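@channel sequence for tomorrow's demo:
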Amino acid sequence: MRDDPQGRLALLRRLYEGPDRDGTTHLPYRRAATAFMNWQLRRGLLAADDAPVPGSRWWRAVNERLLRDGWEALGLAIGMDATGSAPSAVPSLDFIRRPTSRNWYRAHNSSVVAGYLDNVELAQAESRTERFFFNLVLIRVLYAHALVAAPRLALRWLSPLAPALGDPRLGMTGIFLSISRILPATYPLGNDVERYVSREHGFGRLVDIGIIQPRLRHLFDWSACELGEPRLAQLLDGDVPCYAWPAEDRQPWLPRPTITARLALRALPPDSLRPPREDRLHRAGD
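structure tokens (generated this afternoon):
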């Protein structure tokens, strides 16, 4: 299915039938899993290299990592030989065996991060704007995971609300896909990233600047521990995400905050010390 974008989507949907193929416990998460992939399809990112308008080799590779990990995990769940399976597929197996929100994010983000780290050279070949959004997508999926699994880190005194806000089954993941409202449904993009960043207002800007950005270091360190991938912590240089992105190119990451973003920063400042112990424990209770 590598060169069949709709076939990729069908493969992803079939994963959520579960090992018993009835989907009773897994189907509620399918919407979250397919939401971003549908956006990739609309932009043409998954089109084959020989298509009239070729897709992105980087997006195709990361998408393939997600699909491979999911199907390897399903194979392991039904008793196939584990020889040769990828380490990033293990969290997907955990999700199949225990389909919770936390396990879904851990499975999804383990595969995403593995796809990122395995395809740096492909990322560097993309435009400046595309590389900016690679980093933005990574930040948002890590933060969505933290809402469910590290609520104190994510929302401090509003932590009791965090798991519900981050639950992928409730459609709240849309706030992390709001880039679909500012990026055209085309590929490739040019290098004028500032033009696209200036289009995003409202809730997306509030979350990015007022809530996520001030706690980026805590977020990356916690995520590296939670996902068992220490290299993830190295994708942040100071307060600048640096996946295939030069740390000295700071301006797109420091836009002028809106009034609501400034208010959010005052109301929800990050903890000055390390996140609370219950947020730092790897694989603590859901």
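heads up for whoever presents: Residues 102 and 149 are 6 Å apart (CA to CA).
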